[in-house]
Amino acid sequence: MGVTLPVLPALPAPPALPSVLAIDAGNSKTDVALLGPDGSVLRSGQAGGFQPFRTGVPAAVDVLAEAIAAAGLRIGADRGPGALHVSACLANADFPVEERELAREIRGRNWGRATAVHNDTFALLRAGLPVDAEPCGVAVVCGAGINCVGMTPDGRTARFPAVGRISGDWGGGGGLAEEALWFASRAEDGRGEATELARALPAHFGHDTVYALVEELHLGRIPGTRRHELTPLLFAVAAAGDPVALSLVHRQADEIVAMAAVALGRLGLLEQEVPVVLGGGVLAARHPQLDDRIAQGLSERAPRARVSVVTAPPVLGAGLLGLDALGAPPSAHGKLRAHFG
User: Fold this and answer.
1) Exposure on the CB side of residue 340, measured as CA atoms within 13 A
2) Phi/psi at 114 (nearest 5 deg)?
3) Hey, which residues does 38 pair with through a beta bridge?
């Protein structure tokens, strides 16, 4: 006599993982976005700045974990991955060896089934490329620091170490603030040329002299994080016609032009019509004296460049790179772009 086995209900299929965990980590803040297969943003979160050169790699990646937790995601370790692909675009990942070290640490967190780490300037470039365009062009970011990358469809890239003066870099918001203080101090004590910076910088913090401002900064009574407030003051003083301040703005523009032109030249793109994408807080502010000088410089050194300024959050670029890696359809890219305006 045969035995009739009970019919068991079918087990539900495990839920499909979201497509991309996009991470953009800058010096001052970190953003994450969890993307669905259609490019929709399912969750987002934010945390503080990403500075592995100060804190070490594990502690820096802990900041990424804070942003993930802020998005309400409980992933990694024994909880399992939260996405098919982690696309992490990170400030201070300036050398390939740093990208590899950061990628190892992130993979160890088990946030996704696959992980790719890029310098954050690549996110700016990807976000600024026209829809359906080939991955070809140059991006310059001028935020807290300054950096530039370029790429061609065949995978060639142009990069700069971008670790400060030791690698030949000048400017960015932090550098401009330091220069403004330097010139203001020398103007006040007589070693340098007179400049309105000597009045405007201390006045912003409620002081009458640069000496008092420097003392407060040196002793930590004004947090070092507030130095970034000096950069908009520099541009305001330049816009009012101060020659010293204007010379700093023009030097910053010339540095941006030099980086873009050199990257284009390395890739053989100077004679081609390609995008030059600009971004970061200093450039996104659209200061006329800076913009006009950049336009003039590029018209001379790279006359066929198509210049644009990206103001969308850089996490958009990280998300687009992640969708690229998964071969997502153009509609997914379009939906993600629409979300970020």
Assistant:
1) 25
2) -140, 155
3) none
What residues form DSSP beta bridges with 91? Answer: none
Q: Interior CA angle at 178 toward 177 and 180, to 5°?
A: 65
Query: What is the C-alpha separation between 89 and 321, in angstroms, rounded?
Result: 9
**Residue 218, helix vs strand vs coil:** helix
Tell me how far the alpha carbon of residue 28 is from its chain's centroid. Answer: 10
**In this predicted model, what pLDDT tens digit does every residue of 141-191 receive, in sequence order?**
999 899 999 999 998 999 999 999 999 999 999 999 999 999 999 999 999
Cα–Cα distance measured from residue 91 to residue 285, given in angstroms and rounded to the nearest whole number: 20
Whole-model pTM? 0.88
Adjacency order of strands within the sheet including 275-279: 157-159, 146-151, 137-142, 275-279, 306-309
What stretch of H or E contains 88? strand 83-90
In tens, the pLDDT along 121-140 reads 999 999 999 887 888 999 99
Whole-angstrom distance, CA of residue 126 vs CA of residue 138 = 10
